[in-house]
Amino acid sequence: MDVILLVTAVALLLIIIALAEPLAERARLPYSVALAVVGALLGAGAVLLRTSFADSLSPEMVELLSLPIRSSVFMYVFLPTLVFQVALGLDLRRMLDDWVPILVMAVLAVLVATVFVGGALIPFSNMGVLACFLLGAIVSTTDPSAVVSIFRGLAAPQRLARIVEGESLLNDAAAIALFGFFLTFVMAGIPNPTLQDAFFGLPLTILGGVGLGWFLARLALLVMLALAAWPLAQLTLSLALPYLAYVLADHVLGVSGVVAVVVAGMTLNWVGPGRLAPAAWTNLREVWDLLAHWAGALIFVMASLMIPRMLASARWSDLALVLVVAIAATAARMVMLWGVLPLLSRLRLSPVVERPYRVAILWGGLRGAVTLALALSVAENFRVPADIRREVGILATGYTLFTLFVQGTTLRHLIRRLGLAKLSPLDLALSRQVLAVALQNVREAVAVAVKDRGLDHDVIRSEAKQFGKRLDQAVALAESGTGIKQRDRMTLGLLALAGRERDMVLEAFHDQQIASGRAEQMLYEVDRLIEGTRAAGRTGYRRAARRSLGYGRRHRLAVLLHNRLRLSRFLAQITADRFEVLLNQRLILRDLHGYIDSKIRRIHGRRLAELLHQVLTQRAEDLEQTLQGMRLQYPGYAEEMERRFIRRMALRLEEREYDQLLKDGLIGRELHLTLMQTQAEERARLDRRPRLDLAAQKGEMLRQMHALAGLDAAQLRMVQRRVATVYAQPGDVLIQKGDPARHVFFIASGAVEVEFAGHKQRLGRGEMFGQLGILTRRPRRAEVTAITHCTLLRLDEARFLDLLSRDATLRAAVNETSRKRGQMEAGMSAPLVEEPVR
């Protein structure tokens, strides 16, 4: 094709993409359905060109409409773009909470659909068994964009939407890997894999893609960090990453290219926000969103162009086979929705999915561009027998059309019939609250804007009166809360509070007060607050707030690496991030009190505002206690982090001052540029956080223990090597009655509660517990429970007894703590630990 004609074709396709979205909205159809209709019509036009109709057209027009499309265009140009952007946009921290149901749904759904469709076709199709399973793998992947748009339009629970969206986005990789596996069985002219190859080949293909994607993403990130002064170079390098990963995996190493691209995107998504500059990361995400929008639409239109060509040789008997595929695929989806999901819910690995949502998910499982692209790759593969190529192309295309034109066109009507298009009473009340607050803000802003503008006072009063009526109606509607209980009013207030907290995090991020990685972590915690509040009101809010102060799986893994393998870098990074997050959260929580008084009190009244103040105050106290514990645990480092926090705030205020001076014309652009470059250098220095030496911090904690004050430097170093750090959350049982006594614990920060013989005693920083069982050589007779977030130092029995025999200060501390707790046996007048005989 001539270059001019190619450019013209691309321009026309982009025009079609631009017009398809408003047309789909006007026709109330899914966007993918509108693209499929347009593509199919264009494809039908291309078929007509083969008739006498083409004689009336110019050769250029015939060539333009007969656009040559090959499956390689989809697989090597568009597919890496789509998959990489999806992986780059995933909320990985949120997905970690639900990784079990997401992976089960993503992988198991593909396997079940492949087995059901392939098994159903075997009695009716002329293809072989393996070819039937090949078709099952092709039609097992759903269209991610359709599923995502469905759930965004449903206002479904966020956790449920995240699981279904994650499953629909990740099953592309599983389906394509399975497709490549079965394709090797049906191609002629190459040796068929053995059962051993099948058993080991597919896992190795996937694991190879995982390793390659991770390595290339880490390498690309290192180069991008070296190009920090050239943001456009960083962006260009990110564009090369998915294509390089796909080609190296697919053609050089013979592993899964799609898996390599997915892992590369997820690795950059996980590490990039904390390493790249916030502006660079934001630009990177925006560019990839635009590229993915174009790629997704182009792949759909261009694949749809092939529909008439692939159905040209269809027979009536093929229609029956399409119905078999549709029934089998629907049955497989029902097994997942009515079998697997309820099982995961009973195991508390997934939220409960109510019946209306399951019906919507079932009918919303549209097939799209990926299915058409895979079918086209089989139809063009001349190593595949001709009868298999014909049948796979027809059945895959026919089933895709069924989902798009039958399910897609009736989906909105089904959603309305299920009652999912209506807002819940709580969401309706929340929308009224948002409207009232928005109108109040608008009135205040307009009042400031029209002041001293020379406008006619009568006009101003008239407009203010009209707007005031509208505002009064909105406030009265929000206050009425028809059918809303007082408990739900509290939920509405907490949702508004959490929503404002989210906005404040974003504002601080845009002002560069919070680094990108920490901002994402804080937004993750705020989303937990919102979900918890929606699910359980005030109890859910408090539970989510306490959970945000605790230690998650990543922290426990880092502690394990630090204690067992002496690998401290991971723990140091998590601890430093935690400092920054807590300091920023404390500042935001203080500002939220003003939001309660200025906004929420106007709508919900004084009583609810007071309750919200109480909840917020309790949360701030818990946060301050956690922060204080970290100060005690890492005294020097905490001070340095707080200094940097203040400097970062001062730096941003200084930048605002320079911007205002430039705006007022008091300084020129040259001076402003020089000042901002100086600020950028200072910000870069602040972004390089001080190194957290965990070994030195552990030694400092040991020196602060009164019981160990008598140890000399050599003994202290020995204990430092032998002691292990233990982190506990409120409610964790540290010692149970009847357990063998094998360890002694020293409290570095936090507090625990000791229960013995019906009596309870609290121990705090600097105290020890667990020594009595070792000294009396009896099983534990007390139960010790953490009542705050604690950092403990654990010493084994042999080392403790050795120290006890050497150090008089430790012996005195043991006897003193034993006497205070009243745990000595009746009639024992001698100390529990005697001085050693010299």
From TrEMBL:
Ranges that cross the membrane: 30-49, 61-79, 99-122, 129-153, 173-191, 252-271, 291-307, 319-341, 361-380, 392-415
SMART domains the UniProt entry points to: cNMP (SM00100)
Disordered, as annotated region: 818-838
Principal location: membrane
InterPro entries reported in the protein's UniProt record: Cation/H_exchanger_CPA1, Cation/H_exchanger_TM, cNMP-bd_CS, cNMP-bd_dom, cNMP-bd_dom_sf, RmlC-like_jellyroll
Domain Cyclic nucleotide-binding: 707-821
Localization annotation: Cell membrane
Native source species: Gemmobacter denitrificans
Keywords tagged on the record: Cell membrane, Ion transport, Membrane, Sodium, Sodium transport, Transmembrane, Transmembrane helix, Transport
Pfam family, one: cNMP_binding
Topology class, membrane: Multi-pass membrane protein
Name of the featured protein: Cation:proton antiporter
